[in-house]
Design a protein that fits this description.
The structure is a single chain. This protein is mostly helical. The protein is built from 7 helices and 2 strands; from the N terminus they run H-H-H-E-E-H-H-H-H. The chain has a single domain, classed as Winged helix-like DNA-binding domain superfamily/Winged helix DNA-binding domain (Arc Repressor Mutant, subunit A). The protein is elongated and about 60 Å long.
Length: about 140
């Protein structure tokens, strides 16, 4: 599975917010990672809709985690951000290809996906959070 840039930004944003005791801004996240404010805003919107982030507009507003970082698994974030996590399209559908009647690859890849998803369901944002000091020294 190759994650989209959107999922990468979502995971980074959640990791950063997990180091904070106060709200952050979309601009802070964008500046920290050297990415577009517009991209971060779109990701934050998706994270808020999925219930991972609270977003408050206006003066004194900002973004913060909506859940404890230990309650947010990497697997569920990936699932909520990605439209397709299959290694090959045939794994996620019953579409036939020229070799479907004798192909064993689909089963192998389906099992690899199952193992990967099972593992990612055990890893939380809390497990991958660097110290706030490490974030301050990335540039």
């Amino acid at each position: 599975m190759k994650l989209t840039t959107q999922t990468d930004y979502a995971l980074r944003t959640l990791m950063y917010l997990a180091t904070r005791t106060q709200r952050a801004t979309v601009g802070e996240v964008a500046s920290l990672f050297g990415i577009s404010v517009n991209h971060v805003a779109k990701v934050v919107n998706l994270l808020a809709r999925a219930g991972y982030v609270l977003s408050t507009r206006g003066v004194g507003g900002g973004i913060q985690l909506a859940k404890d970082p230990g309650e947010i698994t990497i697997g569920e974030v990936i699932t909520s951000m990605e439209s397709d996590t299959h290694l090959l399209s045939c794994v996620g559908s019953d579409d036939s290809c020229a070799i479907h009647s004798f192909c064993r690859l689909k089963g192998v890849l389906a099992e690899a996906e199952r193992v990967q998803q099972a593992y990612l369901a055990t890893v939380t944002i809390a497990d991958v959070v660097p110290t706030p000091h490490q974030f301050l020294n990335i540039n």
